[in-house]
Specification:
The chain has 77 residues and is mostly helical. It has helices spanning 7-10, 12-22, 24-49. Helix 2 crosses helix 3 (24-49).
């Protein structure tokens, strides 16, 4: 059984034009999928130029108090 090449790979512009009219869900999913990798390269420099700085990460543990613990008095279990 011989399969022909996918219409997308043989003529992508023509396929995108057809998909925009006949199957808009396919067309927009391809557009959004193509924007993702481009955004990874474009967005960080734009954010840095606008003065964005990364926030301080939250602490991963509760800080322990320094020195000995106080001895409790009354109502001890």
């Amino acid at each position: 059984m011989v399969f022909g090449a996918s219409p997308f790979w043989t003529n992508p512009i023509r396929y995108l034009r057809w998909a925009a009219h006949e199957r808009p869900n396919v067309f927009y999913s391809l557009i959004i999928g193509a924007i993702g990798p481009v955004a990874l390269l474009v967005v960080p420099p734009i954010r840095r130029s606008m003065g964005y700085t990364r926030s301080v990460p939250p602490p991963m543990s509760y800080p322990l108090p320094e020195g000995p613990r106080k001895q409790l008095s009354g109502y001890e279990d």
